[in-house]
Design brief:
Blueprint lengths: L37 H8 L5 H5 L35 E2 L2 H8 L8 H11 L1 E5 L6 H13 L4 E4 L17 E5 L3 H5 L3 H13 L3 E6 L3 H10 L5 E2 L5 H13 L5 H6 L5 H5 L6 H17 L6 H4 L4 H11 L4 H12 L5 H15 L24 H7 L2 E3 L3 E4 L4 E4 L2 E3 L4 H12 L1 H11 L8 H14 L8 H7 L4 H14 L3 H15 L4 H10 L3 H5 L1 H12 L8 H14 L5 H12 L3 H20 L1 H12 L12 H11 L4 H15 L6 H11 L5 H12 L6 H14 L1
Parallel strand pairs: 2-5, 2-6, 3-4, 4-5
Antiparallel strand pairs: 1-3, 7-10, 8-9
Helix pairs in contact: 4-5, 9-12, 14-18, 15-16, 15-18, 18-19, 20-22, 21-22, 22-24, 23-24, 24-26, 24-27, 26-27, 26-28, 27-29, 28-29, 28-31, 29-30, 29-31, 29-32, 30-33, 31-32, 31-34, 32-34, 34-35
């Protein structure tokens, strides 16, 4: 995701107390926002929503589950995200995402046969275990067959018995992780109907499913459509293809491999490796070639044995509660500054109150003073398999500062330890929930804690997997709502758990509870909403249509979610089209659409990429509209100018557009076209804006505004 500026400007901090949950109270002046300035930080951070998968917490192997495409920096340094870190689960798949799947793809042996079946049948079931690169292969199949990037994703709970392409169908559809009950609901009649609908739309579909006995029996025995088994490509083929893509071409692969110690590649490139593991090896080789890293360090960085090492690491630290606390703090806050990790370790020790072991047998004895010269920080980190990375300089709008991030030597070691603790030590898992649920919001701690809670939900079983998150959503503290929303977003990346997340959010969106409605809105700004923009917009509309909360908290949460959704270029046109229907509804829904439009225009006035998008949008037409018909963005601008509450912000933003257009020829067409189209019906706020445009002559749009105003005066 790009353009971190697409968020609200900082607003005055408010207390973290909750608004009333019952009947609406008169709105105070000014209305408080979601809480302290952490609410602003929440919105900003979700412009790079998958930051942990891309930049170190789960490191490189989890960016695309089991696929051949992710990036890493190694040495504990955050890698710059390549493309969008959120896999679309609903709606159009961005062309950039498909291009990443095509880059360096190693074609497995079954690929050609699967492509032929897709051509003949229009429908292909692709079965295999997690980690075999099924999604990457499916995108390659669809692109190869259709020859285009007009691909669309279907969520895991899609009912294929009734599904049909929309009014503007895509050429290819990907149903990744379709739930087993949805698949077994298909009979031969429904399957024939699905094929007929695909043929009528001249489209193809790949359904990615698990390799389970029930699925295989239903497809083979009932539907007589055996799936293609997605076996992973040979590890050496994946390695060569990935290195060729990253290093510049096949000719650069042999010199890169020659830089490794003799026998190392044969030792680590074992048969049966998943594509994601092979790409991790490729990333380490690139680190050696391009950054001069020690080739001997490749073994200790690879994540292959992280899961096996996790219980041994915990056993070695069992008698040292301080080391256990530091281990867990490093697992959760990996790549945070060393002082913050130690602060969280101390906070965990206090919350544990002896539950990590090592308590004083004489509870009444006076506590001895702590020695100041004990083990060094490096010694303590070495004991948990971590280290302090090189200094990193960070810059704010006011000053710069240095951090020294903590990282594990072995990739994914932190996740492996957390998963082992969660699955095998229930009492320790309860302590984790207590600790994470009280994490301070500042400096991104709350966001990381919520993310980890969401991943813990994926490691849970039973109906109460989301129990800790539900308690946070019902809390009176706005900081807990943000924590719950972050957890729901992380949990929703699991296809099965995503159905539970969706059900919770739909139910909460209709409730009177301010806390739950705010949680719904904020969750739409996370992976959940970004992967399902259509569902997110529906949920936000339901939240807006609910009772007024009297504090502005719900409106603020909805606005932040809309701004985050707009940061996804692929979904902007659909988002604005949805907001047009909001603007026609009146009430709080119309106000939300107008407020979001004002904020979008304000940020686009100063940011290049969204400014260029708005220019292209306003110079075009509706996707299915008639020539000359106004695009959705122009109707929203008219609406926002007509609202007294949003007129000043929209006027100021558009005047800033006009000022910048005087020196930027790329912006001038936007302002000229805007003045021309608004001049066709100059009334209310539009009339006042045209007057301001006219006063700014000879800036772009000034002459056309003057002509429109002259015609209006003559018609009086």
């Amino acid at each position: 995701m790009s353009e971190s500026a697409l968020v609200d400007e900082p607003e005055a901090p408010a207390s973290d107390t909750a608004p009333p949950q019952g009947d609406p109270a008169p709105a105070p002046d000014p209305a408080p926002d979601l809480g302290e300035q952490a609410a602003e930080e929440f919105g900003r951070r979700f412009q790079v929503v998958n930051i942990w998968d891309n930049r170190g917490f789960l490191n490189i192997s989890d960016l695309v589950r089991g696929g051949q495409h992710y990036d890493a920096a190694g040495d504990g340094e955050p890698a710059a995200p390549r493309g969008d870190g959120v896999e679309p689960r609903e709606g159009d798949i961005p062309a950039e995402r498909t291009a990443l799947a095509l880059e360096g793809f190693a074609e497995p042996g079954w690929f050609a046969g699967a492509l032929g079946r897709l051509r003949d049948d229009r429908l292909l079931f692709l079965a295999g275990p997690d980690g075999t690169g099924r999604r990457t292969a499916a995108l390659n199949l669809l692109h190869r067959r259709t020859g285009c990037f007009a691909l669309r994703a279907l969520d895991s709970d899609t009912d294929l018995t009734t599904w049909a392409p929309g009014a503007a169908p895509a050429r290819g559809y990907l149903a990744d992780g379709l739930l087993e009950p949805r698949l077994t609901a298909l009979d031969t009649i429904a399957l024939d109907g699905l094929r007929a609908r695909l043929e009528q739309a001249d489209a193809h579909m790949v359904v990615v499913i698990p390799w389970t006995p029930a699925v295989l029996a239903h497809l083979g025995d009932t539907l007589h459509t055996p799936p293609v088994r997605a076996l992973p490509p040979e590890p050496r083929a994946v390695l060569d293809a990935r290195l060729a893509a990253v290093l510049g071409g096949p000719a650069d692969v042999a010199p890169a491999l020659a830089a490794l110690p003799p026998g190392l590649l044969d030792e680590i490139l074992q048969p049966g490796l998943r594509p994601g593991q092979v790409v991790e090896i490729a990333a380490e080789i690139v680190r050696v070639v391009r950054r001069g890293a020690d080739p001997e360090s490749v073994r200790e960085h690879l994540s292959f044995h992280a899961a096996d090492r996790a219980p041994r690491l915990l056993d070695a630290l069992r008698d040292s509660p301080e080391d256990l606390a530091l281990l867990l703090a490093a697992c959760v806050f990996e790549h945070f500054d060393q002082t913050l990790v130690e602060e969280e370790a101390g906070r965990l020790l206090r919350i544990a109150d002896g539950r990590l072991g090592g308590g004083d047998p004489d509870a009444d004895a006076e506590e001895a003073p702590r020695a100041v010269f004990r083990r060094s920080r490096s010694e303590r980190l070495e004991a948990i398999g971590a280290y302090v990375g090189p200094a990193e300089v960070h810059t704010t709008s006011a000053y710069s500062y240095v951090t020294r991030p903590v990282a594990f030597t072995r990739h994914l070691q932190g996740r492996a330890v957390l998963e082992h603790v969660w699955r095998e030590h229930p009492e320790a898992a309860e302590l984790l929930v207590e600790w994470l649920g009280t994490t301070p919001s500042e400096h991104g701690r709350g966001d990381r804690a919520g993310f980890v809670l969401g991943r813990c939900a994926q490691w849970s079983s039973g109906r109460r997997a989301l129990g800790p998150v539900e308690e946070l959503a019902a809390s009176p503290r706005p900081a807990d709502w943000r924590l719950a929303a972050r957890a729901l977003g992380a949990a929703s990346t699991d296809p099965v758990l995503a159905t539970a997340v969706k059900a919770r959010l739909r139910g909460w969106s209709r409730q009177v509870s301010v806390s739950r409605r705010c949680t719904v809105a904020l969750a739409c700004a996370t992976e959940f909403g970004l992967a399902r923009p259509g569902t997110a917009l529906t949920l936000l509309r339901t939240v807006c249509d609910g009772p007024r909360d009297g504090t502005g908290a719900v409106a603020s949460a909805v606005r932040r979610a809309l701004l985050s959704l707009f940061a996804e270029p692929a979904g902007r046109a659909d988002l604005l089209a949805g907001l047009v229907s909001w603007s026609r509804a009146g009430g709080a829904t119309r106000q939300a659409a107008c407020t979001a439009t004002a904020h979008l225009l304000r940020t686009a006035a100063a940011a290049r990429e969204p400014a260029e998008w708005w220019t292209r949008h306003l110079l075009g037409t509706r996707p299915a509209g008639r020539p000359g018909e106004d695009p959705p963005g122009l109707e929203l601008i008219r609406c926002a100018l007509a609202e007294p509450e949003t007129f000043p912000a929209v006027r100021a933003a558009l005047l800033e557009w006009q000022r910048r257009a005087a020196d930027d020829p790329r912006r001038a067409p936007f302002v000229e076209h805007l003045a021309d189209r608004l001049g066709a019906a100059p009334r209310g706020g539009v009339l006042r804006l045209l007057s301001a445009f006219e006063a700014a002559r000879p800036a772009p749009g000034g002459r056309r505004a003057a002509e429109a105003l002259a015609a209006w005066r003559q018609a009086l």
